[in-house]
Structure formats: structure tokens, C-alpha cells
Amino acid sequence: MQYLLVLHVSESGWGQLTPEQQQQGTAAYMAYGEALRKAGAFLGSNRLKPSSNSTTVRIANGKTQVLDGPYADTKEQVGGYYLIDVADLDAAISWASRCPAAGHGVVEVRPVWQMQ
Amino acid sequence: MNFAGGDDARKTADAVARRSYGKLVAFLAARTRDVTAAEDALAEAFASALVDWPQNGCPRNPEGWLLTVARRKLIDSVRRRQTGEAASTQLQILAEGLEDAAAQAERDMQIPDKRLALLFACAHPAIEAGIRAPLMLQVVLGLDGETIASAFLVSPAAMRKRLSRAKEKIQQAGIPFAIPEREELPHRVDTVLDAIYASFAEGWTDASGTDSIRRNLTDEAIFLARLVVELMPQEPEALGLLALMLHAEARRPARRNIAGDYVPLAEQDPQLWTATLIDEAERLLYRASAMQSIGRFQLEAALQSAHAHRRRTGHDNWAEVVQIYDALIAITDSPVVAINRALAIAEVHGPEAAAAALKDIAADDRLSEYQPYWAARAELLSKTGAHDEARQAYEMAIGLERDTTVRAFLQKRQAALK
């Protein structure tokens, strides 16, 4: 089954780290991605730019509304994702628990709707 | 499941439902994880059996018969719901997988028992905690939503909705039908044990054993607990749970007199207790205690052990009993435990102290319609001489009781008040 691991993290956290800590953090994510690839579970991943760069769009009463900022203005924002393919939820939870973001944020395990 | 068909066919179907429901569901849902579809197919198979068996006689292997029919119904329903090329591929995989496994099962005259894996799926941490036990009762034991709702004190409509949401989650989120990895196992065991105990308690309410399906629940619960003990011999709480249930089961023959009247523990004849079950329970509890990791079920079993010992030897051990209740309250924070602790306190410190202890928990909203609370309150008040209040408490207890023999017992006690 495919799962999207959605990384919800505090955006201010990164800037408060020392350059060494940032380097360490980046290395941890690199290693995690590598482990996923080696296990044959990796389908895709991206780190997202801060939500201050977000724009939200919706159509209300036939008019397109464009707003600056993310959909939900919360302390933790979606900072990236991993798309993985594993046997079941237990395997997905196991990978989610290894994700560095589980240590400084929250990882949501969301099953992907498989087109049949 | 409960069938309204004719005689022998109905009896056989009842028996197979009790023995094999969870096995069949586990088998049918293993590939797709679609528990609802498996249950629907199985229900249709049982309905067919009630038409077919009275005409053609009960099959030699009723389990296999039901599996064959349910499998066909399941494949039909997938076919009806899905169209297109991808669907037909998926259908083929499903059909072939089920076909092979079923052929094997029918050859061996037995369906592999995957109930434990099903239990772990039902008790998965991704399933809302409050629905795990009801889910097991339905999926593994085949209880209908209404019976489960009344056991768990919620409305049938709400219970049905929550059950179907949980089954949806099992399928959509990909919760595995598997026994967890060793490191995950301890956390996952507790929820399984809780649910097994809940099914035992549900079966236990029918003490006279007139309702065969509910009485069988205690057997099913003991069966499942034995299975867990076998798989995890180093899990003291599983041993504790089994010991607890065996102690209770041992007293079944003494719970009613020849006239069918309810007999409370204090008035039971210990000679009527099943000694082999008590001995087995004691051995299990001893094994558990050697593992030095105390828990709720071991404490509850220790209580049953203490009660049995007191009644058989005449040795007063109420002070120890209160101590065990204190330890139990520290772990569970359960108002039900608090009620029983108050009754034990009455034996050590007198009814006034017990009534005071009961007053502390009276504010708990969960108790206002909880029969044992009112029965305990009535008994303590009658001992303190507050007969008017006792009469009112008995009135509530009688009004809330489902079992006619217990109701009659409470009415007798109420009538004896001055």
C-alpha cells in the first residue's frame, strides 16, 4: 500500500539551530531518505518552502479568491512529505517513527487512494 | 448471530456460528481486509444454509459448506461493485487466492485459525480505543450491534456507526491481520486482554445459562485467553486474565440453587465449585506472580483466589482483600472497583465506614444507572439501619436489573426490610 507521510513541523525551529545543528539535521533527513530507498519503500519526497510563501486559492460565488498565506494558520505547518510503498499500516508507522520529523514535529500517516 | 430458522438446521447453524464465526471472517477478509464485505457474505451464507439444510440435510462439514458459499457471495459482491479492466484483474487475484486457500481448508476439513491475528487488528492502536472491544465482539464472535450496544451502555445506532467506521479504517488504512512484532507485542497485548475480558463479562451476565449464545461467550473468552497464553507464555497479565476467568467459571454451578434462584457468593456452597478449574487458576496465578510484574488482571484474579480461599477454609481474609482493592484502584481508577472495595470495607470496618466510602464515588455520573452501584448501596444502607433509603436504592437496583433471578433476589431482600 502507498502512504503519504506528511511532516508537520514548527517553522521557526530551523532558524534557531546553529549551523552545525542544521548540518546534522540535514544529514539525518538524507540518511532517512537513503534508508527508505534501500528498503525499496521510497516513491518520492520533497521539502517545502516556508508557509509564508504559500498562496491559497478558492472559488466562492463564482469568483476566484486568492489569499496570501497557508490554509490553516497554525504553529506547525506542513514542511514536507515522503510518499512510500509498504506492506501495511504497521510498516508505515514504523517508517514514520524513524523520520527525523517525528522527533521535532508530527508525522501523519495517510493512506493513498489507489485508483483501481 | 441468532437464527430464526427451523430446528436441526438452525441448531447446527447456531453451533457453527458460535464456533467458527471469527475464523470464517478472518479467512474471508484476510486478503482484502474488508471485514464488512466478509461479514455480509457470511450472513448471506448462513441465510442460504437455513434454506438448504432443512431440505438436503446438514452437510458433513458445515464450516466448509458455509465457507464455499460465503466465498462465492464475496466474489459476487466485488463483481457487482466494481467494473473495468483493473477491477477484473483485482477480482481474479481475489478469486484465485480465496479459491486455493479454501480448497486447502476443505481438504484438511478445517479452516486455519487466524482469530488471534484478527484480534490484534481489532485492537490496533490506530483504532479508537473505546471501540476495540466492541469490534472484537462483533468481528470475532459475531455478536450483533444491538447486544454489544447494550453491554457497553450506548445507543445501538451510535454503536453501529462506530463499528462500521472502525471496519472502514481497518481496510482503508491498511491495518494488518498479523501478530505484532516482538517489540510491539507488550503494548498490543493489553488492549486484546481488555477486550477478551469484556466478552467474558458479557457472557457472565447470563448466569442461569438459558441463553446458549451468551453463555458460550465465556467459553469463547476462555478459549481466546488460552490462545494468548499459549502464544505469549511470558505475559503475566494474560495468565492473570485466564486465572480470573477460570475462578469465576468454577463458581458457575453454585450461582443458582435447584429452584433456579440467585445465590450470592457469601451463601454459595463451595462443594459445588469446580475444583479442577480453581486448581488450574491457582497454578496460572502462581506462574504469573513468579514473573514479578503485577497488573490489573493478576490483582483481580488474586481477589477471586482470596474469596475462594476464605469460603473453603473459613479463614477471615477481608483485610487482605481490601489491600488488593487498594492496589487495584491505584491502577484502574475504576468506579466499579471502588464499589466492590466499599463492600469489602464493610466486612472489616463495618457498614458505616463502607457507606462513607461509597458516598465518595456517588458523584460519578457513570454510576447513576449502574445496577451494581445501587445493589451495593442498598445492602450497605440496610445494614446501617437506614431502611427507607435502602428501600429506594433496592428499587433502583431492581429497576435496572436485566436478569430475572437477580431481580427476584433483590426483591426478596427489599421485602425483608422493616
Would you write up a description of this structure?
The complex is a heterodimer of chains A (116) and B (418). With 116 residues, chain A is α+β, with helices and mostly antiparallel strands. In chain A, 33% of the residues lie in helices and 38% in strands. The two termini of chain A are 13 Å apart. In chain A, 16% of the residues are buried. The mean pLDDT of chain A is 91. Among the domains of chain B are: 1-113; 114-232, no CATH class. Chain B is built from 19 helices and no strands. In chain B, helix 11 (236-250) runs parallel beside helix 13 (296-313). The model of chain B has no long low-confidence stretch (mean pLDDT 85). Classes of the chains: A alpha+beta (116), B mainly alpha (418). The interface between A and B is medium-sized, with 12 and 16 residues.
Annotate the secondary structure layout:
The complex is a heterodimer of chains A (116) and B (418).
Chain A: E1 2-10, H1 12-15, H2 19-38, E2 42-47, E3 55-60, E4 63-68, E5 76-85, H3 89-98, H4 101-104, E6 105-111
Chain B: H1 7-29, H2 35-56, H3 62-81, H4 85-107, H5 115-122, H6 132-139, H7 145-151, H8 156-172, H9 185-204, H10 212-231, H11 236-250, H12 275-289, H13 296-313, H14 318-332, H15 335-349, H16 351-361, H17 371-384, H18 387-400, H19 404-415
How many helices of chain B in DSSP terms? 19
Helix content of chain A: 25-40%
According to DSSP, the number of beta strands of chain A is 6
Domains of chain A, number: 1
Please outline the major beta sheet of chain B: none
CATH homologous group name of chain A: Dimeric alpha+beta barrel
**What percentage of the residues of chain B does DSSP assign to strands (E)?**
under 5%
Biggest chain pair interface? A-B, 12 and 16 residues
The total count of strands of chain B amounts to 0
Shape of chain B: elongated
Question: Number of helix segments of chain A?
Answer: 4
State the CATH architecture of chain A: 2-Layer Sandwich
- Strand line-up of the largest beta sheet of chain A: 2-5-1-6
